[in-house]
Amino acid sequence: MALLELRNVTRRFGDLAAVDDVSLAIEAGEFFTLLGPSGCGKTTILRMIAGFEFPDAGQILLDGKDLAGVPAEKRPVHTVFQSYALFPHLTVAENISFPLRMAHHDPADIRRHLKDALEQVRLTGKADKYPHELSGGQQQRVALARALINRPRLLLLDESLAALDAKLREEMQVELISLQRAVGITFIFVTHAQVEALALSHRIAVMNQGRVEQVDVPSRLYSHPRNRFVADFIGQITMIPAQVEQVGRGHLHLMVEGLGEIVTPLQQSVAAGDKGVFAIRPEQVRIGVQAELAELKNHFAGEVHSLLYQGDVSVYRVRLPNGTLIEALLPNSAPGGAELFKVGAGIRVGWRHDAGVFLHE
Q1: Which strand (E) or helix (H) includes residue 166?
Q2: Closest by CA position to 214, among listed 15, 97, 40
Q3: CA 62 to CA 240: how far, in whole Å?
């Protein structure tokens, strides 16, 4: 049995269905992420799990028990907000131990749990500091320690890394993964940042307009999106209008107007004549001269439209004969630096027959 289940949950605000018939099952010990654009319903789901909102229809079950009517303070659930919500007049130790003091735990028990919590988040030397004396990352760790000190069944994180700068955010991602493994508590994380979701999660639910579009492990979401919304929302991708010409053994043969045939992996529920798009990630596209790409099933002439040098890689946008702009990544790993193709240069792009995916309209 799943630790947490949402069964056909709906939450309305007037005529708007912020959450529309959502069903999810989240396992014990899982780092589960709700991912989607602003207004897709992910934070409303988190608030319903926490008990700050209640469903208009459906059930939310924890350990098989319906949470209907259970107030937030009675649920074995803690939430870490983007603002951290630390008490500015309390020390780190007082902030972290606050939930245990409110529950009237024995002082010796509080000291023992506090020591463990400070060690877990690597703040042992900061116990007597106040929040304003800490960095953003340290404040984040205090908020996490406070949420974890009495071992909730669920820890809910609402855009809790959004206020950090890029480098600190990356460091905190690593810390979150390590902390979640160490404590073994189920984390449910809300974010609109795709890279963050891919880096942190065991599984991700991609949401759009109150509904779940796809639930999967990060690698499958990225490489096998179920539809055009998921493909477009997760990372960079080029989509080229195409029609299925032939369903072969192990491959689809697509026809692209003004370009020709593309060979791509076979998929279920696809038939000759189906219309849709061929979608491919920039890192799957190679760029070079004809001799370098001749062994690839798919290779086409093109012209460099633009390039963006990013240090480790250069991102090219290449215009194909039918006017499509396709993105390609070229690693800058050659000794002495990469030799860049110039804007306007005639080059070729290509990709393997097992790259990309066909998506229906």
Answers
A1: helix 166-183
A2: 40
A3: 44
Q: What is the pLDDT along the chain (361 residues), one digit of tens a residue?
A: 899 999 999 999 999 999 999 999 999 999 999 999 999 999 999 999 999 999 999 999 999 999 998 999 889 998 887 777 888 999 999 999 998 888 888 889 888 888 888 887 788 888 899 999 988 778 888 888 888 888 888 999 887 776 666 777 777 777 788 778 877 889 999 998 898 899 889 999 999 999 999 999 999 999 999 999 999 999 899 999 999 999 988 899 999 999 999 999 998 889 999 999 999 999 999 998 877 788 898 999 999 999 998 888 889 999 999 999 999 998 887 655 556 788 999 999 999 999 999 999 7
pTM of the full structure: 0.87
What is the 8-class DSSP label of residue 340? Answer: P
| Spatial contact of 155 and 26, defined as CB atoms under 8 Å apart | no
Topology of the domain covering 238-360:
OB fold (Dihydrolipoamide Acetyltransferase, E2P) (2.40.50)
Retrieve residue 282's tokens: 């920039």
Tell me the CATH number for domain 4-231.
3.40.50.300
Neighbours of 125 (CB within 10 A): 9
